[in-house]
């Protein structure tokens, strides 16, 4: 048996995932859905439309961002296919979340992405075992500039350096966090999804001029116990806004799905 895989997107993450898939046995990369023609073809990867991909692929691996999940996810699940999400932030939309997780007949898998500790936190949160979770993320100021920001704030972040003190850009719930910072706070959605504490997870995003690397700190407490995790990831060499471990997380997800499907990789 061979597990046929189609990638969604072909950027810095997907191109590395494609390379990792080629090293697996009994797994075949049948192509990629891309917005810009030629991006995958230059690496010898077939560029497919959705209909062709649905005919050829068993598993879709998304590496293209929340809008791509919104565009392709419901059709993939309705076609009884498997979908592995790197952009877990898509699950912050309750309607899309229900469609993907409960709509069937296909199945969604999610990656841990750039954070860990989710297994123990998921267990601790069962039956109300946790009262609160706080995720504090510190990133370099220039990496946090968003289209909705006014010119003064954007310029302050762009300048960075010693003239800028640490600045709290956001503090609040998960849904608004991913809406305001869609490329920066997927980890908050992964955390809320794992624990099912969508309404009790607080996100704090700090622009820190001393942050050479992105740092995530998770604090959780309740009757089950008190937990704290600190994660600092190195970025992809040619994509500083992306943690390098994300690629490994996606590849691990593929291996897990392949194993559950009876495929040896």
From TrEMBL:
It catalyses: L-aspartate + NAD(+) + H2O = oxaloacetate + NH4(+) + NADH + H(+); L-aspartate + NADP(+) + H2O = oxaloacetate + NH4(+) + NADPH + H(+). SUPFAM superfamilies: Glyceraldehyde-3-phosphate dehydrogenase-like, C-terminal domain, NAD(P)-binding Rossmann-fold domains. The lineage of its organism: Bacteria, Bacillati, Actinomycetota, Actinomycetes, Micrococcales. It comes from the Bacteria. This is L-aspartate dehydrogenase. NAD(+) binds at residues 114, 186. The iminoaspartate product is unstable in aqueous solution and can decompose to oxaloacetate and ammonia. Residues 9-102 form the Aspartate/homoserine dehydrogenase NAD-binding domain. Pathway: Cofactor biosynthesis; NAD(+) biosynthesis; iminoaspartate from L-aspartate (dehydrogenase route): step 1/1. Belongs to the L-aspartate dehydrogenase family. Residues 166-250 form the Aspartate dehydrogenase domain. Specifically catalyzes the NAD or NADP-dependent dehydrogenation of L-aspartate to iminoaspartate. Keywords: NAD, NADP, Oxidoreductase, Pyridine nucleotide biosynthesis. Its EC number is 1.4.1.21. HAMAP family: NadX. InterPro entries: Asp/hSer_DH_NAD-bd (IPR005106), Asp_DH (IPR002811), Asp_DH_prok (IPR020626), L-Asp_DH (IPR011182), NAD(P)-bd_dom_sf (IPR036291). The active site is at residue 216. It is an enzyme of class 1 (oxidoreductase).
């Amino acid at each position: 048996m061979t597990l046929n895989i189609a990638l969604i997107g072909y950027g810095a993450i997907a191109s590395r995932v494609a390379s990792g898939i080629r090293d697996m046995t009994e797994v075949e990369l049948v192509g990629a859905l891309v917005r810009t023609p030629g991006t995958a073809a230059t690496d010898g990867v077939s560029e497919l439309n959705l209909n062709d991909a649905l005919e050829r692929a068993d598993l879709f691996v998304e590496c293209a961002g929340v809008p791509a999940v919104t565009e392709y996810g419901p059709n993939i699940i309705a076609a009884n296919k498997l979908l592995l999400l790197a952009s877990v932030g898509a699950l912050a939309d309750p309607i899309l979340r229900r469609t993907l997780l409960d709509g069937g007949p296909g199945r969604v898998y999610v990656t841990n992405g750039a954070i860990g500790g989710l297994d123990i936190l998921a267990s601790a949160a069962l039956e109300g075992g946790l009262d609160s979770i706080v995720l504090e993320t510190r990133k370099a100021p220039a990496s946090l500039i968003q289209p909705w920001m006014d010119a003064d704030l954007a310029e302050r972040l762009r300048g960075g350096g010693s003239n800028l003190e640490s600045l709290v850009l956001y503090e609040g719930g998960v849904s608004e966090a991913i809406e305001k910072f869609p490329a920066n706070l997927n980890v908050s959605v992964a955390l809320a999804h794992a624990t099912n504490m969508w309404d009790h997870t607080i996100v704090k995003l700090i622009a820190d001029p001393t942050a050479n690397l992105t740092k995530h700190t998770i604090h959780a407490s309740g009757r089950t116990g008190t937990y704290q995790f600190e994660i600092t990831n190195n970025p992809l060499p040619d994509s500083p806004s992306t943690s390098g471990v994300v690629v490994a997380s996606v590849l691990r997800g593929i291996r897990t799905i392949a194993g559950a499907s009876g495929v040896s990789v």
